[in-house]
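An example makes the point: we let one protein speak, the chain in one-letter code, the fold tokenised, and here it is:
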Amino acid sequence: MVVCLVNLSLLWCVCEADLNDISQPKSFQAVKLGDAVTIKCHIDSTARVRVWYKLTTGRRLQPVASTDMLYNLVTFKEQSEHYSVHSNSSSSHLSIYTTTWEDAGMYYCGVMILHDIQFGSGTYLMIKGAKMISDSVIQQPDSKSVQPGDSVTLSCSVHNNRCAAEHTGVMWLKNSDHSAPETIHSSENRNDSCQRSESGETTCEYNFVMRSQSSDDTGTYYCVVTSCGQMLFGNGTWINVQRDAALIKSDNLSPTVIALTLSTITFGLLTLLLGWTLCKNKKSPTAESRSSDVSLEGNQRGDAVIYAAVSAAPRSSSGRAAPMKYSESTVIYSDIRHCQQV
């Protein structure tokens, strides 16, 4: 009995996990350095524990806060005076009172069921400073056009004389007209990609290879550098994935051309249908006539009458054919034979 109850409980938890609906309405938010910001999350779930996590530029998932809905208890990982969480039955909103450079990153809202966490789509928080695009972060190339299926390599050089390489992280951010900004790659802090000059300046090279490009990959890719708590953006690289010529040609067709093509096809089909109908109607009377003739012939066979006309005019004694003259006394007999068919 106990085993059965445990199995039912697990099944209920799994079903509940499938029915969870976590929605973060904004996938991207930008705020000035030092301002307050609220990241919203809507939850349709009866889960008891709700959590907030942050994905840093170093690709580390760090817990920010958790809320026990049963006791209305909020627990922060650290800096409880820096964050606040407001939760009710249908939402869980994370607020940051005074933003710093360290607050930049991707924030995920989630619910905890047993030992599993189901997250929302995430919200990227960008901190806007006096100069976000830094001269010390150089991206190459500025732009590039590629064919579908090709590969492209993005390069980012970071020049820094104040922060060591082990305290520098790089993240690649994609921005396009068709989707919200999203984090697509993060480079680990590796000393082997960095060189230190005699003047004490450290230069780090980060490459990002994108393979099998498609039209969905078109957009601007930014190199985002976190160095000693400060976040800087590169100038960006515009990647244009060219579309197939056939697709471009079909897209360039005007509505007038499409309408004329459709009307021509429709007219052709109607012409064929009309010709077929006329041909069918033309054959129908001939068939009926033939059936009538056959029916009449069948009736005549049932009671056949043969008519034979005999002329009984007198013949001349000579072999010449004399002209026949008829008088009122001339008699003409007609022989009629009747055949009855059984």
In short: The mean pLDDT is 74. The longest strand covers residues 105-113. DSSP finds three helices and 24 strands in the chain. The helical segments are 2-19, 245-251, 255-302.
